[in-house]
Amino acid sequence: MDNLIQGYRRFRDSTWPEQRRRFEALAEQGQRPRAMVIACSDSRVDPGMIFNAGPGEIFTVRNVANLVPPYQPDGAYHGTSAAIEFGVLGLEVSDLIVMGHGMCGGIRALLEGVPPPMGDFLTPWIRVAAPARRALECTPADPQLACEYATVQLSLTNLRTFPWVAERVANGRLHLRGAHFDVRTGILAMLREDGTFCPI
Known about the structure:
Layout (H helix, E strand, L loop, with lengths): L1 H28 L5 E6 L6 H4 L7 E6 L15 H12 L4 E7 L3 H8 L9 H5 L3 H5 L8 H17 L3 H8 L4 E8 L4 E5 L5 E3 L1
Parallel strand pairs: 1-2, 1-3, 3-4
Antiparallel strand pairs: 4-5, 5-6
């Protein structure tokens, strides 16, 4: 905790004075981000840092393995789906990016099983990505990377099951994009129409 407090003090001493007007404007006018990013909770993968974005520029939701479940409105708790609803219908973002990453622990759990003592919540959550594992052709040279890619594609497919996402994609008001960040190299690859990921 001491490191976090020291970090906050550095923020107040240097970052806050530089960004104060921006924060005051965001407080008065509200947020109007044009992009939403669904990323992994992994502490090494910070969308704001990766995209060099400032306050108010990206609406971000993070969860284990950057998963989007299918559209399923019911009485259960749906934190990711609620964030998607808020970003698309409330903030009217124009770009929605699903960003996977290298060495994802959630994907490793999908491939190898959830290690004990975890499992109460992680096991059913990671099952959302089961179709991505089944979709892997043969045995790829790098199953971890192949499954990281496939999970991004699955999340994009699941996004299209949300009727208001599909409607906005169809009329050009919303663009869905896939990305993958390699923690080891700092390289961001974007998903192309042919289903491959290409470094930018």
